[in-house]
């Protein structure tokens, strides 16, 4: 199956998430890609900076990040972004 879910990524959807939703999303992504929990916690300490960084992702960059989580988890994360960012 072709992984094209990242190509539909809407960076503005990130801007519409509240801090709790954004924190949950980042925690899920970080866990799925095997990130250091301490680094994830540090990122969550600056929600405005994190939000700006994520809003700047291109669809290709989003896909690369999501691909690291594996197809099933990537689709779950993408759907979460899509639903929450409406």
What order do the helices and strands come in, and which of them pair?
Blueprint: H1 11-15, H2 19-33, H3 37-44, H4 47-55, H5 59-67, H6 71-84
Describe this structure as you would to a colleague.
By secondary structure, this protein is mainly α. It has one domain. The protein is built from 6 helices and no strands. The chain has helices spanning 11-15, 19-33, 37-44, 47-55, 59-67, 71-84. Helix 2 (19-33) runs antiparallel to helix 3 and helix 2 (19-33) runs antiparallel to helix 6 (71-84). It is globular. The chain starts with 10 loop residues before the first helix and ends with a helix.
Give keywords.
86 residues; single chain; mainly alpha; 70% helix
Q: What global shape is seen?
A: globular
SSE series: HHHHHH
Question: What is the oligomer described by this structure?
Answer: single chain
Rg for CA atoms: 12 Å
Q: What fraction strand?
A: under 5%
> Low-confidence stretches at least 5 residues in length (pLDDT < 50)?
none
Query: How far apart lie the N and C ends?
Result: 26 Å
* Biggest beta sheet summary: none
Task: Please state the average pLDDT score.
Answer: 79
Into how many domains do the coordinates divide? 1
Structure class: mainly alpha
| Tally of alpha and pi helices | 6
Q: What is the share of helical residues?
A: 55-70%
Number of strands: 0
Concise description?
The chain is mainly alpha-helical and 86 residues long. It contains 6 helices and no strands.
């Amino acid at each position: 199956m072709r992984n094209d879910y990242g190509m539909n990524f809407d960076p503005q959807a990130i801007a519409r998430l509240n801090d709790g939703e954004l924190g949950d999303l980042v925690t899920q992504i970080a866990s799925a890609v095997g990130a250091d929990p301490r680094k994830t916690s540090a990122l969550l300490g600056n929600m405005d900076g994190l939000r700006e960084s994520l809003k700047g992702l291109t669809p290709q960059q989003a896909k690369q990040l999501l691909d690291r989580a594996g197809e099933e988890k990537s689709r779950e994360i993408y759907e979460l972004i899509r639903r929450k960012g409406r």
